[in-house]
Specification:
Layout lengths: L10 E5 L5 E5 L11 E3 L2 E3 L3 E4 L1 E4 L6 E5 L4 E4 L2 E5 L2 E5 L4 E4 L2 E5 L1 E2 L4 E2 L4 E3 L4 E4 L2 E5 L2 E5 L8 E5 L2 E3 L19 E5 L8 E6 L2 E3 L11 E5 L3 E6 L2 E3 L1 E8 L8 E5 L2 E2 L2 E8 L6 E3 L2 E2 L3 E8 L8 E3 L2 E2 L6
Parallel strand pairs: 3-6, 4-7, 5-8, 6-9, 7-10, 8-11, 9-12, 10-15, 11-16, 12-17, 15-18, 16-19, 17-20, 18-21, 19-22, 20-23, 21-24, 22-25, 23-26, 24-27, 25-28, 26-29, 27-30, 28-31, 29-32, 30-33, 31-34, 32-35
Antiparallel strand pairs: 1-2, 13-14
Length: 314
């Protein structure tokens, strides 16, 4: 499946089981304001509010915006044109809001290398009202080094993949780079990392791509994840919920979400325990709603309140 949703399709409403309108995706503009300051890299080492930067990485790698301080807000920025991560978070009590992050490409389409939109350490991090696309890794991935513990909230974000409109180093026009909208990596035991994803719009994670089993959400390892009021469309897999492995297993609850045009809605893997699918709305074009891989009848599985999702309205 190919992404057919335009950039202008950033905000729409759906009615969930409670018949209450809920919005998914960004609210208003994500990106710079008038007269942004142009820089090529930004390193934040002190607490404070940093806003209205246009960060053109000029093809360079590393963490293009690197946050090592606590108590930081990064707001109304555009971060693009790099071969590394858009934002690397290494502090706590960090808020990233109203940012547009795009075209971060490493390696080639055939030989995938990670360049994430936002990544770093778990630890009281909030990502709000951001638009992230055209990355060769994940829109958001925490923690690639598996050395941290804490919480992450992603809300009212537009996390998407789609065909490139022009050639880029290692990539050709029409190719769709990237792995997942979100991917979790954690330490294998101890207190679970807390993940909240709500009111987000995730689409375009379909084939052909750089990986197999391309999913909007790749929920794995030692997390406690709450996913609510999200809309998934035009994905190979909307949600991968993954059970026990060498680095722990996820605990996942999905509430009041709507899933459209997907090969698989929810892929249940390795007998994940206590997976809850509550009041899922199923829209047109979903070929398989729930699939089990690595064992059926996982302990504590619940799937209640399924219903037909309303049509998407632009």
């Amino acid at each position: 499946m190919r992404n057919t949703i335009s950039l202008s399709f950033l905000l729409f409403s759906v009615c969930f089981a409670a018949d209450t309108p809920q919005s998914a995706g960004t609210r208003g503009k994500a990106g710079t304001l008038e007269n942004p300051k142009l820089v090529h890299r930004l390193e934040i080492t002190k607490p404070g509010v940093y806003e209205n930067f246009r960060v053109d990485a000029q093809g360079k790698g590393g963490n293009i915006v690197k946050i090592t301080a606590d108590d930081v807000t990064l707001r109304n920025c555009e971060i693009f044109n790099g071969s590394g991560n858009g934002v690397g978070v290494f502090g706590t009590r960090v808020v990233i809001e109203n940012c547009r992050i795009h075209h971060l490409l490493s390696g080639t389409f055939e030989e995938q290398h990670d360049a994430h939109g936002i990544t770093g350490r778990w630890g009281d991090v909030t990502i709000s009202n951001c638009d992230i696309s055209h990355i060769s890794g994940d829109c958001v991935q925490f923690d690639p080094d598996r050395k941290s513990r804490g919480s992450l909230t992603i809300e009212h974000c537009h996390l998407w993949a789609g065909p490139l409109e022009a050639d880029a180093p290692g990539f050709k026009v029409g190719q769709s780079p990237g792995e997942n909208a979100f991917d979790s990596k954690t330490m294998p035991d101890g207190e679970r990392n807390k993940l909240i994803i709500r009111h987000c719009h995730m689409h375009g994670w379909s084939q052909p791509s750089q990986i197999q089993n391309r999913a909007a959400l790749n929920l794995k390892e030692h997390i406690d994840a709450q996913v609510s009021h999200c809309v998934f469309d035009d994905n190979e897999i909307a949600i991968r919920a993954r059970g026990p492995g060498g680095r722990g297993d996820a605990r996942v609850t999905v509430e009041d979400c709507a899933i459209y045009r997907s090969e698989v809605g929810v892929r249940v893997e390795d007998k994940i325990e206590n997976l809850k699918l509550l009041r899922t709305g199923w829209g047109e074009g979903v070929k398989s709603r729930v699939e089990f891989h690595g064992g059926k009848n996982p302990p504590g599985f619940e799937n209640t309140g399924e219903h037909e999702a309303p049509r998407l309205s632009p």
